[in-house]
């Protein structure tokens, strides 16, 4: 059984927190190896510096881009390349972004479904999203960024069926904020999942580092 990996997102309400560097500094020795944040909230120079620091400590890095037009999505991909991140998450899928990621050795995990707003809301049929995802994988995407708990339908059903139906890494992103949802993520068996806001809101009770370690240990049980 796959043990989903935690991606710690230094974000709250889909925006990177201003003190992301300080938060990371306080938790750099935690049990989390995957770290990321969003494309908005910090100046690009600070983003580059923080990602570089994360990578120097052996962390796998993610930039998640919440954008819906091809122009904005491509700008986000360029930011990811400039920051030297390992994986670009998010953006609606555009072939221009897939081509850019291939040229710049970026792994690409786009969104699927009908997405609006920030924080995002997800709509669409489960079967349609699985079909959409597999078409992107066939075109070279590394995996899929699924906003499972932002779904207007049955999130638990979506997560399970989607992970089972997509033969590539799936990250369940957004609103994982309780042990009940950790159990559901574990049951779905996704490759990874993100937590950001829940840590800032102390949903797992403790310092930021203590919460990270609690979640990692829980998922490894």
Description:
- By secondary structure, the protein is an alpha/beta fold.
- It has a single domain, classed as Aldolase class I (TIM Barrel, Alpha-Beta Barrel).
- It is built from nine helices and twelve strands.
- The protein starts with a strand and ends with a helix.
- The relative contact order is 0.16.
- Provide the CATH topology: TIM Barrel
- Determine the CATH superfamily: Aldolase class I
In total, the number of domains comes to: 1
Mean pLDDT: 97
Radius of gyration: 16 Å
Order of strands in the sheet with the most strands?
7-6-5-4-1-12-11-10
Query: Class in CATH?
Result: Alpha Beta
Helix proportion: 40-55%
Counting DSSP H or I runs of 4 or more residues, the number of helices is 9
The description of the largest β-sheet is: 8 strands, parallel
The computed structural class is: alpha/beta
Order of helices and strands: EEEHEHEHEHEEEHEHEHEHH
Keywords for this entry:
221 residues, TIM Barrel, 8-stranded parallel beta sheet, alpha/beta
In short:
Helix content is 43%, strand content 19%. With 221 residues, it is an alpha/beta fold.
Write the layout of secondary structure elements.
Layout: E1 5-9, E2 11-12, E3 15-16, H1 20-27, E4 34-38, H2 44-56, E5 60-65, H3 70-83, E6 87-90, H4 95-103, E7 107-109, E8 114-116, E9 121-123, H5 126-138, E10 144-146, H6 155-165, E11 170-172, H7 179-188, E12 192-195, H8 197-200, H9 208-220
Helix pairs in contact: 3-4, 5-6, 6-7
């Amino acid at each position: 059984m796959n043990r989903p990996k935690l991606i710690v997102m230094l974000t709250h309400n889909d925006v990177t927190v201003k003190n992301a560097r300080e938060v990371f500094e306080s938790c750099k020795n935690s049990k989390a190896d995957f770290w990321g944040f969003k494309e908005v909230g910090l100046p690009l120079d600070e983003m580059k510096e923080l990602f570089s620091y994360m990578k120097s400590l052996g962390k796998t890095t993610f930039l998640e881009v919440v954008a819906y037009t091809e122009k904005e999505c491509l700008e986000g991909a360029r930011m990811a390349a400039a920051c030297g991140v390992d994986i670009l998450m998010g953006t609606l899928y555009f072939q221009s972004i897939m081509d850019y990621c291939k040229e710049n050795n970026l792994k690409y995990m786009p969104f699927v479904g009908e997405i609006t707003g920030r924080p995002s809301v997800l709509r669409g049929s489960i079967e349609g999203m699985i079909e959409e995802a597999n078409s992107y994988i066939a075109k070279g995407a590394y995996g899929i960024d699924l906003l499972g708990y932002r779904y207007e339908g049955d999130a638990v059903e979506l997560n399970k069926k989607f992970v089972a139906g997509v033969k590539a890494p799936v990250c369940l992103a957004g609103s994982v904020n309780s042990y009940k949802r950790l159990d559901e993520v574990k049951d779905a068996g996704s490759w990874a999942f993100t937590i950001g806001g829940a840590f800032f809101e102390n949903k797992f009770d403790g310092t930021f580092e203590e919460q990270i370690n609690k979640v990692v240990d829980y998922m490894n049980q």
